[in-house]
C-alpha cells in the first residue's frame, strides 16, 4: 500500500484531470514494486517553480519538474510504517511546451513527468542525458521510465 497527496499552488484552479493524478501515481508506485511509500505531488506555475529552481539549484529559470527527496520513515496513528519519499513539483505552464517540443500529447508528457519524478525520489538519476525525440535512451533510469510509460499507454489523465 502506498499513499499519494496531490495539491495545487494557492491561487491556481484545478484542471479537469486533477482528480486522476492520485490513482495514476499509485499505479506507478505499484508497477515499480514500491510499497509503504508516501509521495506528494504539487502542480504550480512557472514563476513558482522558477523560484524553487533558483533557491535550490541556483538556476534562475523555470523547469518542467523538480523532485525533492525526503527519505523520512514514520509510523502513523494506525501503527502503519511509511517512507515519505518526497515531493514532485510540476509546472502547468511548461507541460504544454514540453509536449509540443517532444511531439507528444500533454497526457503522455504528464505521465512521463510523474514517472520521472518518482524514479528520482527513489534514488535514480540520469546524469546529463535527457529524453530526446526519436532517440532511444541509454541511461538505465530513462530506459525504465520509457518502458513503464509504454505499459501505461492506455491510461488517459488528460482527455
Outline the structure in words.
The protein has 159 residues and is an alpha/beta fold. Helices cover 38% and strands 23% of the residues. It has five helices and four strands. The protein has a four-stranded mixed β-sheet with strand order 1-2-4-3, with helices on both faces. The radius of gyration is 15 Å and the shape is globular.
Keyword list:
alpha/beta, single chain, 4-stranded mixed sheet, 159 residues, 38% helix, globular, 5 helices, 4 strands
Please outline what is shown here:
This protein has 159 residues and is of the alpha/beta class. The protein has five helices and four strands, in the order βαβαββααα.
Please describe the biggest sheet, giving its number of strands, its sense, and whether it closes into a barrel.
4 strands, mixed
What's the number of helices? 5
Number of strands: 4
The H-and-E topology, N to C, reads as EHEHEEHHH
Computed Rg: 15 Å
Ends: how far apart?
Answer: 27 Å
Our estimate of the beta-strand percent is: 15-25%
Q: How much helix is in the residues?
A: 25-40%
Which spans have pLDDT < 50 for at least 5 consecutive residues?
none
| Strand-pairing-aware structural class | alpha/beta
The coarse silhouette is globular
**Largest sheet, order of strands side by side?**
1-2-4-3
| Integer average pLDDT | 93
Amino acid at each position: 500500500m502506498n499513499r499519494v497527496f496531490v495539491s495545487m499552488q494557492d491561487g491556481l484552479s484545478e484542471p479537469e484531470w486533477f482528480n486522476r493524478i492520485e490513482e495514476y501515481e499509485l499505479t506507478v508506485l505499484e508497477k515499480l514494486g514500491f510499497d509503504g511509500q508516501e509521495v506528494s505531488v504539487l502542480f504550480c506555475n512557472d514563476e513558482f517553480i522558477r523560484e524553487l529552481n533558483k533557491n535550490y539549484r541556483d538556476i534562475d529559470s523555470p523547469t518542467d519538474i523538480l523532485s525533492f527527496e525526503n527519505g523520512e520513515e514514520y509510523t502513523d496513528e494506525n501503527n502503519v510504517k511509511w517512507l515519505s519519499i518526497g515531493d514532485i513539483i510540476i509546472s502547468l505552464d511548461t507541460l504544454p511546451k514540453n509536449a509540443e517540443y517532444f511531439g507528444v500529447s500533454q497526457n503522455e508528457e504528464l505521465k512521463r513527468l510523474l514517472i520521472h519524478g518518482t524514479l528520482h525520489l527513489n534514488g535514480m538519476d540520469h546524469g546529463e542525458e535527457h529524453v530526446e525525440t526519436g532517440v532511444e535512451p541509454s541511461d538505465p533510469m530513462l530506459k525504465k521510465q520509457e518502458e513503464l510509460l509504454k505499459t501505461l499507454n492506455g491510461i488517459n489523465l488528460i482527455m
